[in-house]
């Protein structure tokens, strides 16, 4: 019997994602894998291309999916532009630009390119489904799992169960790299103190923070990621 490859596990996990909690008023769950269109197919193509093996990966956790990254591609921190240009996978009829994706793919390039990076790392999120809220005037915006205590409470069990399932795969449990040195790291460290998922949590500046506030020093932050990865080989 052939061993189950990690792409099969990821695709099955994503395909069956369902948020069971009761959301606070005004908050909507964003599940791109349940939306009509090609996202499920694009996501499956990506993981079959880069994860069709049983090689151990180290885990990188973001916050939760955003509308213009994995919300349109099904792949964390990959907008349609990066997915086509760097990974050779096209999302037909859609073009998105997400600054966080630009930074992440600069890190990937500095590490040695997509094949090498994705063989060694698996990027997910503390909360694997995203959320949105409506601003006055009806504009939909991203909403993080920690943006209100009510949402954090509603999402807590889902977060724990999702991480626990992903860690049944061949994921290295010595270290987890956390994108975000503030609330995301604080939540994940407290969760890890309770659940003992990893031996160590290593916070790194979130790509969005770098691109929005530190873009002139982007290369320095790329180096910080690479140094952290190399320090925990």
UniProtKB/TrEMBL annotation:
CDD domains: UDG-F3-like_SMUG2. Gene3D superfamilies: Uracil-DNA glycosylase-like domain. InterPro entries: Phe_SMUG2-like, Uracil-DNA_glycosylase-like, Uracil-DNA_glycosylase-like_sf. Residues 53-228 form the Uracil-DNA glycosylase-like domain. SUPFAM superfamilies: Uracil-DNA glycosylase-like. It holds the Pfam family UDG. This is Uracil-DNA glycosylase-like domain-containing protein. It comes from Chitinophaga terrae (ex Kim and Jung 2007).
